[in-house]
Amino acid sequence: MQTKIVGILNYTPDSFSDGGSFFSLKTAQKHFEGMLEDGADIVDIGANSTSYNRILLSAGEEWSRVQELLHIIAPKYGHLISLDTFYPENAEKAVDLGVHMINDVGGAKDQRILDVIAKNKHALYVFMYSLALPANKEIRAKSREEIYDFAKSKLDLLQAKGIELGRVIFDPGIGFATNPSLSLKVISELVFFKSLNVPIYIGHSRKSFLESMTKFPPEGGDIETLAASLYMVLQGVDYLRVHNVNIHARAIKIWEAMRSSL
Predict the structure, then answer these.
(1) Among 78, 146, 149, 187, whose Cα sits 20 to 30 Å from the Cα of 35?
(2) Residue 129 near residue 106 (C-beta atoms within 8 A)
(3) Which part of the chain is the Pterin-binding domain (predicted)?
């Protein structure tokens, strides 16, 4: 499987990287369509910031924020949309509109979301290694084995719920539930997770574990992100969730052309 690019659309006023930049219907729709033109395979829309020290929106508040945007773009682009939500009721409303992917950063903490996925056979499901919402620097994974065991137990649960593993994707929670050293270890050794036999999804874009090495400026980090991305492409990563789709699409196209010529 060639690496797929997931563009990030933070439909929030308080995202850690670009909060507020696309927090209007007009700018959000333009950015969504721009990422598709730049080469995104899918765009992940999030209305509820789960970064450190954030106050989470309720399910109703989250849906109130995102519903108008989804009603505008889903009729045409539903198969290219991912909704970042851990609320079962919002996942169900989204797939009813034709949204193709649910990105659950709660890692099925609320198992009712699995019932939504089980009965909607067209939907893909991303579950993330997650210990706390919002993210908490005091509650993190201690080893890659801990992340692997979490994934394995969740996959067993998903199968018990009747969800085909062909619709399931795993995100090890880089920079969210891992410290900088473990984040680097995970992305450097993705083959460790390949035995889960589901696609691997990495959301490392502009995160602080990269900043700790080069001290990039606010709203920076695309060079560092791309460097890590290309190393993961070499390892066969399945999905890369990134802010700057344009540079990733261009770089990966060259990378694939060079690899195929060998």
Answers:
(1) 187
(2) no
(3) 3-253
